[in-house]
Please model this.
Amino acid sequence: MFFRRLMQKLFAVRRPHRRRSAVRSELLEDRTLLSNLNLINASGTVNDRIVLGGGAEVNNFVVSYNPGTGVYRFEDTSGTAINAIGGLAGLDTNPAANIVEFHAPTAEGVTDFVRIEINPNAGDDTVIINGFRAGDEGLVIHDDASEGNDTVTINGDIGSAGSRVSGNNVLINGETINFSGSVFTDNLDVSVRSGAGGINIAGSPHIDVGTGTVTFEGTVDGAGDLGVVGDFIDFLDVVGGTTPLNSLTATGATVRTQDAVTVDGGDMIFQADLYIPQGNLNGTADLVIRRNTAGPRNITTTSFNFIQPGFNSVTIGSSLTTTLSLGDDGNDDLLTGSLDVGAPLILIGQDIVIGDSIQQGTHTVTFRPENSINFSGVGGAVGTGDSFIEKQTMGGTLTVVANTGSSWGNNHLSLSAPGATVTFEREVGPNFGAFSATADTLNFNFISAVVAQGDVTLNANTINLNGGIFSTAGSVDVTGNLNLAGNILFRVAGGQSVSVVGDVTGGGNVLVRGVGGAIDTVTFNGNVNIGGNFQIDSSGGSTAANVDLASVSASNIVVRGLDIDLLGGAIASTSNVQLIGPVDVVGTTSIASGGAADQYVQLTGAVTSAGADLTVNSGGGRTQFGAAVTGLNNLTVTSGGTNFIIAPINIAGNIQWTVGVNGNGLNDRLIRSGAGSIVAAGGFLEADVLQGFTSGTNVSAAVTLTQRGAGN
Model:
């Protein structure tokens, strides 16, 4: 049977034929059709390549491989006969004249072939690769200039990630090349060369040649996703000029694009130690330019002039970038001497050095260092878009060096370093529109204040502050334990707020002041323990609308507010305590002065509560309530000297007021005058002299009155 079919094919080759030389689209039956499929001995001893050669007629070759059966199939869908000759003689298992099928392992049992080579020869031929065996063999498709306009379509994969082409390069030539399959080689080259028809990308083809070279010679178009990996990747012509790619990823030691590249919809990623752009880059999603191996990257303000506006973001660098450095070009003009990519910009490196300005406009700028970031000279982001410093990984340390904000625009700078210790070596501000920082520990080592035009927000477990915090037109919000190295001033504009949620410790003063109007709210809800004075709007020039305090221990305490809320805790001074304004005792509170005869506790406004206890101890000094006291559960006062009750005191529980100490020989007095009165469920008043009290009239009968006698 096989012999008879072989003779038929040979007979078909030798049969006389007629051709219409003037008509290229001649009918199939008017031609003599001949193609050969040969396993050729190239070296004289080993048949190393399978060659499919077409004749003068138009061939429509289709190559496929069935991995389940191990059978290669070569077909000419135009009907042209294919003769299996040479090393394949006798191995064809398909009876059709235009189809040759052979069992690849059997063929290799005869010879080891390292590539399949297709030469369509004359005519406007087509070659379709629908399937290809993973492993040794490479692929070569010829397209001679004088032999018609051939179309090559790669539908199936050539090799696989786990079984790469190792025997020969992959060279694909055609007037038009349609690419939807992938190619994997074991460090062997891939060349895709087209004519006027270009290279058309469909689907998601991936070309991975390890340390080999990938060359695209011809325009590349099509709404597909192209991925390329190699040591050297070279695009010799326009990419996406007619039909933009959906996405492009090129990864290698060196990547070169010798003309414009356009991607629409997906990302454009060049991951190369050396990227050589020789045309504009256009896109609508993200552009990423980063190293393929660890090393530095030095850029200037003109390094990315080829990037056209329209990208969703532009990323330069990665965690593999040891140092990303933007050098100073010597031109301080913001329009001509700044880095401007026309899109949100992301700069990534283990260490980042910014020596020139970044013109961000309304776009965001994100710096992602791991160890340090240094702003020198005019280095900074200029514009109104938000700026971010984001540590790459959690924990560790991050150092911010040099002036942060002096060369910046009116933008919001936000630093995020979860679990890390962040140290600002120099001043922060003042040009920021707003400033925020989040970390495990924040160190502000410079003696000047942290300054922003708008809000200042600090969030950390521990915050070490060497200066103050100023906001020109915003609020100050600190969350975390605050350690103060010197005198600290919190300064905000009228109508804004200061909030410290956490403990405050230090040896200096803490001052809170409004500028240009009254502060809205001042909150210290942790334990304040300082060696200096604690003062909130002590001058009275811009009295805070609301003050919330928990515990305060300081040398001298002066708090001025239109509503002072004592959240519960101890207010203790080594000198005087002055609460100037109405006081609401929210939680159980104690207030104590230094205790000397000239050290006092003064509450000038009405004292109200919803049932909390208040204890006041001014030792040998006076305690003064300047207005009514209502709503407390219990009131306990210890004082000395001459004390006055000039307004009603209405206590739900007991009042206990002791003036002086029994037997100390002092003239300690408690005097009721004016509208002063006491209503309580029980308790006592005790002093050397009690003056103006009538039990059952202006003091509840349940309150015991004990007068020790003047001079005792």
Observations:
- Residues 2-14 form the longest helix (13 residues).
- The chain has two helices and 65 strands.
